[in-house]
Design a protein that fits this description.
This protein is of the alpha+beta class. It folds into two domains: 2-70, no CATH class; 73-324, Fumarylacetoacetate hydrolase, domain 2 (Alpha-Beta Complex). The protein is 18% helix and 24% strand. The protein is built from six helices and 21 strands. The chain has helices at 34-39, 41-56, 88-97, 177-182, 241-248, 277-288, and strands at residues 2-6, 13-17, 23-26, 64-65, 71-72, 81-84, 112-114, 127-129, 136-137, 140-146, 162-169, 172-173, 195-196, 200-201, 210-211, 214-215, 219-223, 226-229, 259-261, 301-306, 318-324.
């Protein structure tokens, strides 16, 4: 099943989208918003799946064309956004470039921070920022949306709490990060709004490609129309979503609608490219002694998409342009 949120009000209007991402229909009669559906999933799921089946059979009389530009993030705002860093080889690479050792605990204990959750960007919304000097970067990730997860849920019991999966572009301001981390209090200014794919999908849509808490497909990222990277999301993912969920709920319950990210999808194999500029710059620095790829400039466009084995888009594409923000005091 594929769900999305039309841009209506602050929390969107829930719609069901066909498997081929061509048609959609309102789910207003089932739940007004995706958050409402997640809060009452046991009551809503069967009716939403019935709508989905009608769409796929082209039998829904009030169906309309699915146009991604008209959609917000599946959850336009969420109670919690916790982003992990599950591809530890990516962390190892970045630390190596600056001559920092890798603590052994990084391989056994996931890194995670709480990001901005009160306003996610839609899949085709502009990235609006004030200064190129901030080191503007994209980060292609996979994310899950959970049900209510009891505190202390272990890895073995975590995956049934995954309700939906989607893609995210976790925008990072690389040149603001060092000073923030040096304070010892984590990210804030360096992590602006995150964008999400047009639709979120239930795990069964992935079939055998949802395995061991990992999505077994490649994430394709282009910058200004040129391929930037296409790493495999299931390869080199040190911590699956079972482990990330267990980490997040160790000392607290998670409310329905919690979003947990994988961190930048990354492979050890350099030929697969990268899902963020920082990783490419790191490899350039280690290879040639200096980084030649610039961070994003105003007017740049980044696109992220995941295709199935037949070449069909699973989540739709995140397709964004970087735009100069003038600010209220400009």
């Amino acid at each position: 099943m594929k769900l999305a949120s039309l841009k209506e009000g602050r929390d969107g209007s829930l719609v069901v989208v066909s498997r081929d991402l061509r048609r959609a229909c309102s789910a207003e009669g089932v739940a007004p918003t995706l958050q409402a559906a997640l809060d009452n999933w046991d009551e809503c799921e069967r009716a939403l799946r019935a709508l989905y089946q009608q769409l796929n059979r082209d039998e829904h009389k009030d169906a309309f064309d699915f146009i991604p530009q008209e959609y917000a993030a599946p959850l336009p705002r969420a109670y919690q956004w916790a982003d992990g860093s599950a591809y530890v080889s990516h962390i190892e690479l970045v630390r190596k470039a600056r001559g920092a050792d890798m603590p052994p605990s990084f391989w056994t204990d996931p890194l995670m921070y709480q990001g901005m959750s009160d306003g996610f960007l839609g899949p085709c919304d502009d990235i609006v920022l004030a200064d190129e000097a901030w080191g503007i970067d994209f980060e292609g990730e996979v994310a899950v949306i959970t049900a209510d997860v009891p505190m202390g849920t272990g890895e073995r019991h975590a995956l049934p709490y995954v309700r939906l999966l989607m893609l995210v572009n976790d925008v990072s301001l690389r040149n603001l990060i060092p000073a923030e981390l040096a304070k010892g209090f984590g990210f804030f200014q360096s992590k602006p709004a995150t964008a999400c794919s047009p639709v979120a999908v239930t795990p069964d849509e992935l079939g055998q490609h949802w395995h061991r808490g990992r999505v077994q497909h490649r994430l394709r990222v282009t910058l200004n129309g040129s391929l930037f990277g296409e790493p495999h999301a299931g390869t080199d993912m040190t911590f699956g979503f079972d482990q990330l969920i267990a980490h997040a709920c160790l000392s607290r319950p998670l409310g329905a609608g919690t979003i947990i990210g994988s961190g930048t999808v990354s492979n050890r194999d350099e030929s697969t490219g990268s899902c963020c500029i920082a990783e490419r710059r790191t490899r350039e620095q280690l290879g040639a002694g200096s980084a030649s790829t610039p961070f994003m400039r105003f007017g740049d466009r980044v696109r992220m998409e995941m295709l199935d084995d037949d070449g069909h888009s699973i989540f739709g594409a995140i397709d964004q342009q970087l735009v100069h923000y003038k600010g209220p005091d400009a």
